[in-house]
Amino acid sequence: MVSILIIAVIAESLAETIVSLFPKLKAKYISLAVSILICTLSKTSILTFLNISCSFAFADYILTGILVSRGSNFLHDFLRLLENWKIKITE
């Protein structure tokens, strides 16, 4: 979970830097592309974290990248919700 938060912060930082260099680019699209790229290259996946099998790992990386692109605050709240849900299920 911590690694996903760190990736969210890195992706957000990189996206802001790219947008500042190229102001005509849309920030949300740059953030999405950077997040998916980082999650794919680092093989970071939310479904694996939740012990949910996925036939295509690439789809898991894309899903995680989309969540990461929403920003670190959103992702932190979302992961906390999933973790609480996972704890309740395993009890």
Describe the structure concisely for a colleague.
With 91 residues, this protein is mostly helical. The protein is built from five helices and no strands.
Task: Write up this protein.
By secondary structure, the protein is an all-alpha fold. The chain has one domain (2-90). The chain contains five helices and no strands. The chain has helices at 2-21, 27-42, 46-49, 57-69, 72-90. It starts with a helix and ends with a helix. The mean pLDDT is 84.
Which features would summarize this protein structure in a list?
mainly alpha, elongated, 91 residues
Question: Which SSEs are present, and which pair or pack?
Answer:
Elements: H1 2-21, H2 27-42, H3 46-49, H4 57-69, H5 72-90
Helix pairs in contact: 1-2, 2-4
Radius of gyration: 14 Å
Strand element count? 0
**Span between N and C termini?**
20 Å
Please describe the biggest sheet, giving its number of strands, its sense, and whether it closes into a barrel: none
Low-confidence stretches: none
Strand content: under 5%
Q: Any idea what the shape is?
A: elongated
Tally of distinct domains: 1
Mean pLDDT: 84
Number of helices: 5
SSE sequence, one letter per element: HHHHH
Helicity level:
over 70%
What would you call the structural class? mainly alpha
